């Protein structure tokens, strides 16, 4: 199949290379992406005004594509905040502390609980929901605070976020950029997430256990007072003790909500399977349930002021959501131009027979360079890791999805490569290796984010290596 490449293709490819180079230097890529949109717009619209207008229109396009993801995160954060302030989260998690009797049980217990909670609440809110209650119990039985932070990171920001099977924010971004169904990317990611999670968590546990055996003496106590610390990535961790006490519910009411809330989300999961809900439908079910819980708890906790407080919680949640996803919109806007957005925004400036800039480049590349499964898998892992170096994890997965279609030798291999790149990007940038992305778990555990990043380095690199090999075998 012969594809005619025009200047638009080469300019787009040049900006991808430039964006990767900027990410490697740990610099922000927003200006580069805007420059890329303007340049492509100038070539496509052939007018300066059309180029400038294209920047704004591309932002609108990206915002519309991401809106459901932004909304679900914002609503879940709003709900998480009211659960913390009323003390319900403490009642929900406290029974699980009965199983934490040894350092080994503490590591795996915190990790698995963090993973489950993160699937529904995302890791940042989950750190506050789980860490504040389970950490003292873990330290009491001999698990160092750094061990608890490692478990929370690897299971939450690693395993749960890289799969993101409930909220489906990550697979939606990569699948949209790759032009694939979300379900196909999620299905392809399951064995890779399992391998990555198993290798990294077992390696980290082995290293931690070896260190604990060589050390002697009691573990230091940990203070969990962060009311004076500003944590932009974790607003829930900054709740003061007085604020929680002021809104705490009667114990019987807290127990009632602590029982009902998990049952409601469990019912959501059942309905997803029974009704075959995926993608936006599944997200809508979770989001609607979170809104209902938010309203019910607010009314029960604040009574006559429940309506006003519900609005206040929603405002705080949306502030968090747009703060996190604000930097993603310009980057996603550029990469959406590589697929369907360019035809919608600039009246299809590509030659006849084109299937989008990225697909055209992939076809042209496959005809020039002898690609194979090993090269494609290694390229996706490296690309994903590089895009995660900005500490976001999400800002570069649109790029990962776009590049995956270039290296996919068949329709069956495209979801696997897309999922592999997504896993690499999330594990590196989502909160396991980049120090400034480790603030949530480091703060709640009272450890240095740089030390936490150092401890995670070997397990994550080994996990990525093994996962890449497995991906090659699956293609």
Automatic annotation (TrEMBL):
> In its keyword annotation, does this UniProt entry include Transmembrane helix?
yes
Q: Which UniProt keywords are present, listed alphabetically?
A: Membrane, Transmembrane, Transmembrane helix
Q: Where are the transmembrane segments?
A: 6-24, 31-60, 66-84, 105-122, 182-208, 257-276, 282-301, 322-343, 363-386, 393-411, 423-445, 457-474
Protein name, UniProt field: Transporter
